[in-house]
Amino acid sequence: MKSYVTKSIWLLGATVVICCLIYPLAVWAIAQTFFPFSANASMVTGPDGKPVGSLLIAQPFTKDEYFWPRPSAASYDGSASASSTLAASNYLLRDRVARMLGPIVKYASGPKKGQLVAPDVEAWFQQDRYQGAPHLVAQWADNHNELAQSWVSADPSHAQYITDWAKAHKAEVADWVKQNPATPQPQAADLAVMFFENFSKQNPGKFPSAVTTQLPGGKSQTAIEAVESGSDVQSIFFDMWRQDHADADLANVPGDMVTTSGSGLDPHITLDNAEYQLDRVASKWATDMKRNPAEVRTEIDQILQTAAFAPLSGLVGEKMVNVLLVNLELAKRYGGAATVGR
After folding, report:
1. Rounded to two decimals, what is the model's pTM?
2. What number of other Cβ atoms are within 10 A of residue 213's Cβ?
3. Which member of 65, 70, 141, 157 has the lowest number of beta carbons within 10 Å of its beta carbon?
4. Is residue 293 over pLDDT 70?
5. Gap between the Cα atoms of 325 and 311, Å rounded
6. Residue 287: which domain range?
7. What's the CA gap between 339 and 58, in Å, rounded?
8. How many domains is the chain partitioned into structurally?
9. Reduced to 3 states, what is the DSSP secondary structure of residue 39?
10. Which one, of 255, 304, 252, lies nearest residue 278 by Cα?
C-alpha cells in the first residue's frame, strides 16, 4: 500500500513540474525567441515611441483624418467582448444602422449622383412634416419611446436639460403624474416622450442638440440648444427621411461600415470600407497640409493597397486592412504629432 502511495505522489509531483513549470517555460522561451511580437500582444508604438495599442484589438478613431473601425457593441473595451445580440426584426438595430448611414450615404443616380444625402435630410427635417403630418420630432418620440428615453440616458447633460425643463413646466409634469400614478416622482427618462412632444410644438423643425461655443481665453462651453441641422439631425432622422423618400436611389455602402463583429473588437475593415472613407481622409489631410487633394488621395490609396491582405494568402475572404496600422502610417507620414490622434 505504501509503495502505491509513494508512486502516486511522485507521479503527481512530476506532472505538476512538467505541466506547470517546464511546459509553460518552454512555450514562453520559444515564443519570445521566435515570435516576440505576437507573443507580446502585437503591441505597436506611435511616432513618439510609446505604445498606442494592439493590432489585435480595435480602438475608436473619430477624427476625419483617420480611418474609422467597424462599430462596436462592446464600446471597444477589450475586457468586455460582445456582439449586439439584436435580431434583424429589432428596431434598435435598424436605428443604429440608419444613424451611421445618415451622414455618409450618397445618391447613386440622378442629378445629385455622388452627392451626400445629409443636406436633403436637413432640408426635409426643417419642413417639420412626416407622412404628411406636422410635428416630426413628436412623431419620432411617440413611435419610438425607447429611442427617446435612450437620448436622455446617452449623456448627463441631456437628463439635466429635461430636469430643468420639468421645473419650468410643473403643470405638464403634474398632469403626467395623474395619468401615471405608479410613478409619482418621475425621472428625466420617464418624461422623455412628453418633453419631445412639447419641444416639437414649441420648436418646429428643430431638435435639442449639444452646441459648443468658444469663450474668451480659449475656453469652450457646451450647452443643449434647438438646432435645425447638424450630425444629430442627419443621423437620428435619416430613417424617417428614407421612409418619406422610398424612391430615392441611394448608393450601397460596405456592410462592415454599419455592422458590428461578433466580438465587437475586430481590428480590421475591408478594403472596400477603407476606399469608401478615402475621400474624407484625404480631403482632411490635404486641407491641413495645404496640398493638392488628388496627390494626397493617391498617396493614401497607395498606403491602403500596400497594407491590404486577404486571409490564407488570398484564397478566401475579401481584402482587409488593419485600421490601427494604417492610421499609424498616416500619422508617421503626415501627422508630425507625438501621438496618433483619435
Report:
1. 0.79
2. 10
3. 157
4. yes
5. 17
6. 43-82+260-335
7. 17
8. 2
9. helix
10. 304
